[in-house]
Amino acid sequence: MKFEQQNLSHSSFNCCDLSETEIQCCNGSGMSMTDVNLTGMHISDANLSELAIDGAQWGGAHFQSIGYGDPSQPDAEHNKDGVRFSDCSFRNGRITDCDFTNANFQNCDISGLVINGINIEELIQKHVPVEQRE
């Protein structure tokens, strides 16, 4: 089934098989998805500003050129609001070539966290006053 130049706003799809569906050049602002399987989904060249993902599995997920867009288009306008992660597991994850300027990490388990070859947990312990060490 193919839809072109159709206004499907306010549509509702319930218990539908949309596997292998391709969506191009569409406005999905305000779209809501609940209890969906998006395994293997690929999103590119998209504006995901104010995207909220809650209660999702993300093992094997790959995020690239997020927050500042495609590096090949450095002059393009991008949303400057900071990205927020809460109650997420980055266990055994890898973060490369990311900008953490003014980032704030609170109540995070940093066991084994290594940044550019430096064990951060050990570094912090070197700067904690002796009376505060466990």
Characterise the protein shown here.
The protein is largely without helices or strands and 134 residues long. It is 6% helix and 3% strand. It has 1 helix and 2 strands, in the order E-E-H. The protein has one helix spanning 120-127; strands at residues 114-115, 118-119. Strands 1-2 form a two-stranded antiparallel sheet. Strand 1 (114-115) and strand 2 form a beta hairpin. The longest helix has 8 residues, at 120-127. The protein is elongated and about 70 Å long. Pfam families: Pentapeptide.
Helices and strands, in order, run as EEH
Instruction: Work out the helicity level.
Output: under 10%
**Count of individual helical segments:** 1
Please give the alpha-carbon distance between the first and last residues. Answer: 64 Å
Computed CA radius of gyration, to the nearest angstrom: 20 Å
State the shape.
Answer: elongated
**Strand tally:** 2
Supply the helix-strand structural class.
little secondary structure
Mean pLDDT: 84
Low-confidence stretches: none
Strand percent estimate: under 5%
Largest sheet: 2 strands, antiparallel
Query: In which order are the strands of the major sheet placed?
Result: 1-2
